[in-house]
Amino acid sequence: MKLVSSMAQLLRVGLLLLLLLLAASVNPLVPGCDGQFYETKINHFCMEIFQMDMGRLDLDLWCSWPETMQIYEGLTNCTYQVALRMDCFWPNQVVDAFFMKIHRMYFQHCALTGRLLQEPPISILVPFIGVSVMITLLMTAVVVWRSKRTQGML
Question: Cβ neighbours of residue 40 under 8 Å, at least 6 residues apart?
């Protein structure tokens, strides 16, 4: 009888822990944090500042990390400061979704390295192409020469 009650108690404790883990994974925001209000504030306040700052940049410079780094850091700091004042964890799911939206709007066509993609200069391109063509021709000539040479030996 005692074994059954201890098993039931262990089962209750296990279920309680499972419920706590599920609750923590569903709502990682602080209990005092209103996620929708936080999202509204960062969309209204931080996004407007970011849009004004990015609007001052030439479109060709949006993918240049040295040009956008300070603006991006300002946006990150803004979301952090709003989270602090609203008693929200930072980063959280709202911030992740917010930055995903920013990247889709502003940085979708940028290279992963953060540098602008450019064609290499002709002084670099010609030697690479020339060497590749020469090696291909040389290897073809060696194969033909070697195949003609071994035909007489067999």
Answer: none
In this structure, the chain runs to a length of: 154
Rounded to whole angstroms, the Cα distance separating 86 from 81 reads: 9
Closest by alpha carbon to 68, among 40, 110, 118? 110
Which DSSP string corresponds to 93-140?
A: HHHHHHHHHHHHHHSTTS-TTSSPP-PPPHHHHHHHHHHHHHHHHHHH
Mean pLDDT of 101-124: 78
The residue among 85 and 13 whose pLDDT is bigger is: 85
Structure tokens that stand for 128 in this block: 């690479």
Angle between helix axes 93-106 and 47-56 (nearest 10 degrees) is 20
- How far is the C-alpha of 149 from the C-alpha of 32, rounded, in Å? 86
CA gyration radius, the chain? 31
pLDDT tens digits for 35-81? Answer: 899 999 999 999 999 999 999 998 888 888 888 889 999 999 999 99
